[in-house]
Amino acid sequence: MDFSNYLKRKRCDKNTPMKAKRSSSGAIATPIYITFPKNEKAIKYKISMSMIVEDTVRENSNKEEVYNVNFAELYEKELGVVKELGKKLENAASENNILNTDIKNFKTNHSELLKAIKSAENDAYENNSKFDKEITDLSNTLEAVEIEKIDETLKIQAVEDKLKCLSNNYFEEKESIQMIEKGIEKQEIKIKKSINKKLSLERRLQSSLKAVSLMKSTIEELSRYQMEDEKCKLDILLQISSN
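Request: output the structure for the sequence above.
Response:
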């Protein structure tokens, strides 16, 4: 609800406007009472800017609710608010100056940074050119290495084929050698059997020789006995003939 039409009313008179006295500073010195109809209450009412109507409520003879508004106090309050705002403005101006300085420094730094970035871009371009050349050289080198690698691979393949052939020949020769070794083993067995047989024959021959030698000695012994016997017989015959 709009209560602005009550600001011109007298304390308890709803029709006569009230004239307020002002001090030398311009503030309203005489309190102004604002009346409100019965059963209509307004705890706070903004007069102008931040001036707030808030005071002790009392009732008049017509049982109407009355607010006591002291504009001098409101002015002092508003003046304090203005001073506070002035301080805030001064602080804001100081902060703004600092911010402007920071912005100026930022622009300077930004300019230097742009120069550094430009220089870095130029260096990067030169480095990229060098890298491109090095990469091209490396690619050519790698291509040559790949060709040499292919040649070496072919050589290695030829060597591996040769080794495989030699390996096959080796296994064939090994099998032949094993067969020969088996034949040699069989021949050795036969030779051992022949040697054993020869030794047996030699032993039998030695036995035979011993037997022959024994028979020879026996025959010689018998011959000697026989000769002695013949000599005895001859002696006997000679004795008989001499008698």
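The chain has a mean pLDDT of 71.
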